[in-house]
Design brief:
29% of the residues lie in helices and 21% in strands. It has 486 residues and is of the alpha/beta class. The chain folds into three domains: 5-70 and 249-324 and 434-483, FAD/NAD(P)-binding domain; 111-147 and 325-433, Polyamine Oxidase, Chain A, domain 2; 154-209 and 224-234, Guanine Nucleotide Dissociation Inhibitor, domain 1 (Orthogonal Bundle). The strands form four sheets. Strands 2, 3, 11, 12, 13, 14, 15 and 21 form an eight-stranded mixed β-sheet that branches. A seven-stranded mixed β-sheet has the order 9-8-17-18-19-16-20. A three-stranded antiparallel β-sheet has the order 1-4-5, with no helix packed on it. A hairpin with a 5-residue loop joins strand 4 and strand 5. Helix 3 (149-167) packs across helix 6, helix 3 crosses helix 7 (224-233) and helix 5 (188-195) packs antiparallel against helix 6 (199-210). The radius of gyration is 22 Å and the shape is globular. Residues 1-16 and 23-27 have low confidence and may be disordered.
Length: 486
């Protein structure tokens, strides 16, 4: 676990770690490699693997005492294996699917049989999920959610206008969208006030910002341009939560770590990268250094600011990083003997405007034993939640679980939560976001390499950023750039 491990163990719930740990491989003050890689999350591991396959030498420097980044699994007291970080694969996550298959790891489809639950202003309804999000209201069949016809029509009209914005955006150059500057200066909340006449569509756009693929920011934290960009690069219509990994997704990072173990140094926080015409020098840990021809920095944007670059990053790049914080995210697991909701023709998926939990999703094995509900506390709600006592946190979670799924949901075998905001080497999850005005003022350099230094990490991708697929995409693209300097 990271530097402050005690902050990540969910509610003193006693989780047995499965994340791959190893001792640092540093054996001398100065090492050498063709490519230095900063960060042993999925993106850095994939980049290293690709470069080694091309015949180049690599060395990975990881600040934590484990690999995997935000891809980490745990075994619980009940024997369930869960992903404390990312867990889902999507219908068009082809690179991730191929990697999992190559590693010989089995997958299974997410459980969506039966009806889900929507709670709106205290009223609970059971409804089928729509075939496509673009045909839905809050992902449900609009004919079954028991809302006034006029409110549904207004909600669908507002979402149609928003999707048109998303369709107009170039994933690599959002600042070129029509009317981009005005859209970038308009917060999500302000856009709703001007274009949405329905609380349903207001909530749907807010749901996209706090948890629906974008991750962990409030509708006043980011512009409507940024939210539209997130749907351009990671469209919810393409089923990003379609399948799960048997034994949890974290084992993918563990398998890659086993393969790359000899070239990984742990507890090796990088604090400076200097470059010349001939190569780079990466300073890390206690007066240690790594000489290489080029470097890949595969960490979230906020963490890049902890590194001193010589020569310095362009001022626009630094300004963009300053305006790219991580989302606020706490992941929650409720574990039961069985997935009792399935016996009631319910699928475990729920959305509601409740106090604490934005949604729940069935994360059980196909057998339904044990039954696992995954959920999230996000954005400003997460900031307030982390100030509660453990007893208060437990009550807040259980109150909402009971509202969604009835009294049985209030008696889990285990209740766990993972506060990614307290993670020193992530500072939040599951991805970063961009504050209003940043895309059109500073964003033009967001993917641009800094000489021999190239960017990876899921946030550096124009395809599925915030997902495993984006991490792999960014790692492969950075490896391709690095090979030009090697």
């Amino acid at each position: 676990m990271p530097l402050f491990r005690r902050d990540l163990i969910a509610g003193a719930a006693g989780i047995e770690g499965l994340g791959y740990q190893t001792s640092s491989r540093a054996t001398s003050a100065t090492q050498q490699a063709d490519v230095a890689i900063v960060g042993a999350g999925l993106s850095g591991l994939v980049a290293a693997r690709e470069l080694r396959r091309k015949g180049l030498s690599v060395h990975i420097l990881e600040a934590r005492n484990r690999t995997g980044g935000r891809m980490i699994r745990r075994k619980t007291k009940t024997g369930a294996v869960i992903d404390l970080g990312g867990q889902w694969g999507g219908a068009t996550h082809h690179r991730f699917q191929s990697l999992v298959e190559e590693l010989g790891i089995k997958t299974f489809p997410c459980y969506y049989d039966g009806k889900g639950v929507l709670i709106w202003d205290g009223e609970r309804v059971e409804a089928n999920l729509a075939n496509k999000p673009s045909n839905s209201v809050l992902l449900f069949d609009d004919k079954q959610i028991n809302q006034p016809v006029e409110d549904i029509a207004k909600a669908k009209a507002a979402m149609k206008a928003f999707r048109a914005l998303a369709d107009s955006i170039d994933p690599a150059k959002p600042w070129n969208a029509p009317n981009a500057k005005e859209l970038d200066r308009t917060s999500i909340r302000a856009w709703c006030e001007q274009n949405s006449q329905s609380r349903l569509s207001d909530f749907e756009l807010e749901w996209l910002s706090v948890v629906g693929g974008s991750g962990g920011f409030d509708p006043w934290d980011a512009s409507i341009l940024h939210l539209a960009w997130t749907q351009s690069v990671a469209p919810q219509d393409e089923g990003p939560e379609s399948w799960l990994v048997q034994g949890a997704a974290g084992q993918v990072a563990e398998c890659l770590t086993t393969e790359l173990n000899s070239v990984i140094s742990l507890s090796a926080a990088v604090h400076k990268i200097s470059q010349s015409e001939n190569g780079v020098i990466v300073n890390y840990g206690d007066e240690k250094s790594l000489e290489a021809k080029t470097a890949i920095v595969a960490i979230p944007p906020p963490l890049r600011q902890r590194i001193t670059f010589s020569p310095e990053l362009p001022s626009e790049t630094r300004s963009f990083l300053q305006r790219s914080p991580m989302g606020s995210m706490i992941k929650v697991f409720a574990i039961y003997k069985t997935a009792f909701w399935r016996h009631k023709n319910l699928n475990g998926f729920a959305v509601g405007n409740l106090k604490t939990l934005e949604l729940t999703a069935d994360s059980s094995l196909p057998s339904g034993t044990p039954g696992i509900l995954a959920s999230f506390v996000t954005s400003s709600t997460a900031v307030a939640f982390q100030q509660f006592s453990d007893a208060e946190k437990r009550k807040a979670i259980l109150d909402d679980l009971i509202a969604y799924w009835g009294p049985e949901a209030g008696r889990p075998e285990e209740l766990l939560w993972e506060n990614w905001n307290a993670e020193f080497w992530s500072t939040g999850a599951f991805t970063s976001f961009v504050t209003p005005g940043a895309w059109t003022t500073y964003g033009q350099r967001w993917q641009e390499s800094h000489g021999r230094i190239h960017w990876a990490g899921t946030e550096a991708s124009t395809r599925w950023p915030g997902y495993f697929e984006g991490a792999i995409e960014a790692g492969l693209q950075a490896a391709k750039k690095a090979m030009k300097h090697s």
